[in-house]
Model the fold of this input.
Amino acid sequence: MSDCPPYNACDDIDGRLLITRTIDGPNLSLNEDIALGEFQLEGAGLRPYVRLGFLQQWVVKEMCIGPVRSVLGLAPGEKVTTDVRTVDSYEFTSLVQQAMESSEVSTNTRLEGREFVDTNWDGNTVDLSKITVGEWGSLWEVIGAVAGAVVGGPIGAGVGAWVGGAIDDATSDGGGGGGPAPNSATGKVVSVIEESLETIQKSQSSHLLTERSSSVSRTRERSTTRSFENPYFNRSLGLRFSPVFRHFEVITTLFKFEWGLSLDIGKVQFPKYGMGQTHGDFLAARLTDQRLLSVANAELGIDDEFSTSARNGVIGSHLNANSEQYSKKLLRHMHSKRDLNTLQAPVAQALRSKVRSNLQAEELGKAFQWSSTYTKDNSIFVPATTADLALKKLELKSSEKEAFAKKLKRIAVPELKIVVSKKDIHLFAGTQIEAVAGNCVLPDVPVTRPVPTCCCSTQAELASEEA
Done:
């Protein structure tokens, strides 16, 4: 039989994840009389937005060994059993997410020094918290701040000017070709990414000092029991434990630039009575205190014991007392039910308030892809349609249209592959154990256990004695 051929080298097996950042612009309109289905909105504001998408690739390189971590000495003839841990695979999304949540940095793009992140349902996206920028080149606002006064003038011009500034900001290289400018939107996201990688590197480097194989619970580990025996009777045997690391080149690329309109819904005004009758599915899925479901059931006549509480409007009072939290939950619930018509209606209403007629609002609305409406936190997002159609429908002046068209070409998908960061990261992979004989030799002691040579000893006796 011929020898089996060796395995072929695998290509394109590097780990990948998506890191996103949403940036809201200034208010284009503030409306107090906008409704979200049956709910009235308080302080809803229409804004332009951009969403930056960064592809992070963990390219597998070579394995390398660190310095000796610990030494275990075995006396002559001694046996010992120990567990040796190795890491079979990594979940890079979890590594980056937890590093971002734990990193302490001094930057005004974070709240209280920490980055708030969320993991998308697909498990491969780390979503950084939304921030607000009123004007490019100005100081960045703290997360959750309200962006100044309403921007006047035609809405198309306001969107084009702000999004154009965002494109300049995101695609700038700081003037030296060495990556994005530190104070740009991209530069600030890159600083967050690099700080998270530094946190991962420091965490993994701790394997030089501790037996623990990983501080990330989602990293898949395997433990193997190993037994060692010192075969020498005249010297010790030293076991040297050295950590082994897998080397990755982490390449972060700006590959997606989405822009459009967002409606910050402010707060939802929930009705005091009747929520159990009209929105029981929302209450069942989203109430933080499930005991209140009994009160909601009383509104349906299911549970008369709590009918008094239902009449007193306990459910409505609870929802309005926690309106900020439940407003986000309501948007998430509507989006999960694919109730896009209800989500699109307040955005269209806010857009209509900025133009002269319904016909003009209809034409302006064609600049956006309404079928792709989605929600995040307390905002409804409607992305822009194709660049050519958006330029036609935004009603820009000739000079504004020409300038905006040039900027939109810079973020077209084929051209938008800007490498913003490269970094070498070493992740713990396992432990190498090296057995080394001691230098001190005891005199007049045999090297190994002598085997009896008496002629009367049978092979079975020798085996029994050996056992």
